[in-house]
Design brief:
The complex is a heterodimer of chains A (115) and B (111). In chain A, the strands form two sheets. In chain A, strands 2, 4, 5, 8, 9 and 10 form a six-stranded mixed sheet that branches. A four-stranded antiparallel sheet of chain A has the order 1-3-7-6, with no helix packed on it. In chain A, 35% of the residues are buried. Chain A is built from no helices and ten strands. With 115 residues, chain A is mainly beta. Chain B has 111 residues and is an all-beta fold. Chain B is built from no helices and eleven strands. Chain B starts with a strand and ends with a strand. Chains A and B meet through strand 4, strand 5 and strand 9 of A and strand 4, strand 5, strand 9 and strand 10 of B.
Chain lengths: 115, 111
């Protein structure tokens, strides 16, 4: 069956450029999360969406980062004016609901390299 | 300020023996705990969870133990198999429905 799909799988960009990362969650999943994993670090929470509620953006590291979720399905994470410290693997996950008893299903991530 | 701490970056265990991965958390209000497993170039996959009303949950070779007074949980894998070599992340569900992860422990199963 279809899992969470992320594109591109790899992205190399020059410092200062904008990038868009895409996530297609599992059909019917109402909750969608973005995390990033920098080298040697754990998974850092960025943002989550739940249904039509306002997203929880509390993990976004700066105003260069933004995310949208259109029609309750596909999500795009945008990083403006990329910096070298933005280099990381960006992981998207979806779950049927928010909360307990609804585990996250992760995509394989987008590896972003800022040169 | 780490809310979820996995103090062992790596662990090596002989095949067939027990693997014990540890995790400490800081907030006694957390009430749901999870373990995820990650292979290289793949996203993490859910392994097992436990709520704070229990102190043990078992699923096949995997058992999670929760010690609320010590704010500590552990994952036991027995017997350990080569396919268990991966990075294991401990995670907690906080009151804002955010899942907060530790830094992970890399488990090596030795032949």
């Amino acid at each position: 069956g279809a899992g969470v799909s992320q594109s591109p799988s790899n992205k190399v960009t020059e410092k200062g450029k904008d990038v868009e990362l895409r996530c297609d969650p599992i059909s019917g999943h109402t909750a969608l999360y973005w995390y990033r994993q920098s080298l040697g670090q754990g998974l850092e929470f960025l943002i989550y969406f739940q249904g039509n509620s306002a997203p929880d953006k509390s993990g976004l590291p700066s105003d260069r980062f933004s995310a949208e979720r259109t029609g309750g399905s596909v999500s795009t994470l945008t990083i403006q004016r990329t910096q070298q410290e933005d280099s990381a693997v960006y992981l998207c996950a979806s779950s049927l609901l928010l909360g307990a008893d609804s585990p996250l299903h992760f995509g394989n991530g987008t590896r972003l390299t800022v040169t | 300020d780490q809310q979820v701490k996995q103090n062992s970056p790596s662990l090596s265990v002989q095949e067939g023996r027990i693997s014990i991965l540890n995790c400490d958390y800081t907030n006694s209000m957390f009430d749901y705990f999870l373990w995820y497993k990650k292979y290289p170039a793949e996203g993490p996959t859910f392994l097992i969870s436990i709520s704070s009303i229990k102190d043990k949950n078992e699923d096949g070779r995997f058992t999670v133990f929760l010690n609320k007074s010590a704010k500590h949980l552990s994952l036991h894998i027995v017997p350990s198999q080569p396919g268990d070599s991966a990075v294991y992340f401990c995670a907690v569900l906080n009151r804002d429905d955010k899942i907060i992860f530790g830094k992970g422990t890399r488990l090596h199963i030795l032949p």
